[in-house]
Amino acid sequence: MSDFRVPTLTRRAFLVSTAVVSAGATLPLQSIARAAGIREFRLRAGPGRAQIAPDPYSDTAVWCYDGSLPGPEIRVRQGERLRIAVENALDEETTVHWHGVRVPNGMDGVPHLTQAPIAPGKTFTYEFDAVDAGTFWYHPHHRSFEQVGRGLYGPLIVEEADAVQVDRDVTWVLSDWRLTKTAEMREDFGNRHDMMHNGRVGNTVTINGRVPDAFPVRKGERIRLRLINAANARIFGLDFGSHEPVVVALDGQPVAPHAPEGGLVVLGPAMRADIILDMTADARSRASVTDRFYKDLEYRLVDFAYEDEPLRDKAPDWPVVLPANPLPEPDLASATRHELTFNGGMMGAMVMQEMGGSMGDMGEDSSGAMDGMMGNMGGMMNMMHSSGIWFINGVAAEGHIMDPMLTLARDKSHVIAMTNATAWHHPIHLHGHSFRVMSRNGKPTRHREWQDTVLMSPRERVEIAFVANNPGDWMFHCHILEHQAAGMMGVFRVA
After folding, report:
1. Is 459 left (phi over 0), alpha (psi -120 to 50) or beta?
2. Closest among 444, 441, 462 to 453, alpha carbons compared
3. pLDDT digits (tens, 9 = 90+) for 359-402
4. What is the DSSP string of 221-261?
5. In whole angstroms, what is the distance from residue 343 CA to residue 351 CA?
6. What is the pLDDT of residues 102-150, one digit of tens each?
7. What are the backbone dihedrals phi and psi of residue 358, each rounded to the nearest 5 degrees, phi first?
């Protein structure tokens, strides 16, 4: 993390389009592959070295794909079929999970649940259709708290057939690292303190694998900036200062264009946002992007460095609404409801007791959550003395082989009401599906955004809804990777 600060910059108020992205038609996952053939790729997971910290520091030993950090950007068109051969050159097993992509169950990359792990020296070939356009990414799901933390991740971009017009389409993969004073990797992966608290938050933040300095831009330029949070645990809250980002997609799925709430683009681990940025400052000027998520720990992430010659005098007036993806719309009237409570971690018992008396403030549907939470409390207290640290409905998962916590009727609508009865944030990720975020603490969300990872604040209650149209056993877990490893995961069975 940078040591220096920048002053808070005044934001100009502005209006953005409130056009609503229409709901996508219901289509089978395998029905829209085009006849244009198969796009073939090869990835090699293995050790490497990367210049993470700037000069005069030396490079750092990492694990990476194809010797690059992040791994190669895989970029295809919506509807194309991908065939990706993954070679394991590590000394331990691995897999690849295609985060946010609605793949067939056998291609999801969860060891022992959807596939046998890839042994050292072996190759596994993944094949699936790019059903949805959007910003996705890939990473291991085997010992991910260490394998991702050492650098095994990369972007997967699926372009729309009719994309919005911009001058540049840019991907920033954000991450952080826990380095020593000589820029070596700290070897304390999976330690109990990280698992009990907020995960492995590093001391060095990077964009695309390097500590950034300046990002060159031109006045009048319009950029589509694809942001991916590949960090184990760090949450980003990006302040673009005098620039006015317009959010057009979250987790790869289009959303009604809007200004970010509170002026910050907030991304929990694994989350993505596509924003439209118009470069409105003067030529030869600089403007900082600042991370303000953690109170009193703000730091300058990077500067926009304006070149001498403007591209145009003012921002272009081009449409920014993205076309909808083919997601089935949940029917709330017929949906089956399910209640889940996340508990555990440091101060977990205190928060559970505290929330037991305050659930009435969380909306009219909170009584079921309170009953479930209090019913789970005794079991959680007993289990706190076992190997588990984090729990879903009082159960701490071990490994990837487990009985399903929920069985969801296929092609039916479901509402999952989730209560975060802990003192920490949790980005909750569901494999194989995207869901609408319907409400927070009993209040309807403004955009009913489609996501695959929803960031829950401490003591917050969130309701999501989706159609369970992708059959199989699917992981459901916190994407703070230390929390997942310490028990906060389960399986949804769609049958």
Report:
1. left
2. 462
3. 444 444 444 444 444 444 444 433 433 458 999 999 999 876 67
4. -EEEEEEEE--SSPPEEEE-TTS--EEEEETTEEEEEEPPG
5. 9
6. 999 999 999 999 999 999 999 999 999 999 999 999 999 999 999 999 9
7. -125, 10
Residue 19 in any domain: the answer is no
Radius of gyration of the chain (CA): 22
492 SS3 class: strand
Per-residue pLDDT tens for 429-443? 999 999 999 999 999
**Residue 391 counted as domain residue:** yes
- Using left for φ > 0, alpha for ψ between -120 and 50, and beta otherwise, residue 67 falls in left
Instruction: Please give the Cα distance from 370 to 359 (Å, whole number).
Output: 6
Q: State whether residue 12 is helix, strand or coil.
A: coil
C-beta of residue 183 within 8 angstroms of C-beta of residue 57: yes
What are the tokens at 20? 């609503």
* Residue 22 placed within a domain: no
Whether 118 contacts 94, CB under 8 Å: yes
Residues 287 and 393 in one domain: no
Contact 375, 464 (CB under 8 A): no
What is the domain count for the chain? 3
Residue 314 lies in a domain: no
What is the domain-level CATH number for residue 46?
2.60.40.420
- Tell me: do 240 and 371 sit in the same domain: no
Helix axis angle, 366-383 to 348-356, nearest 10°: 150
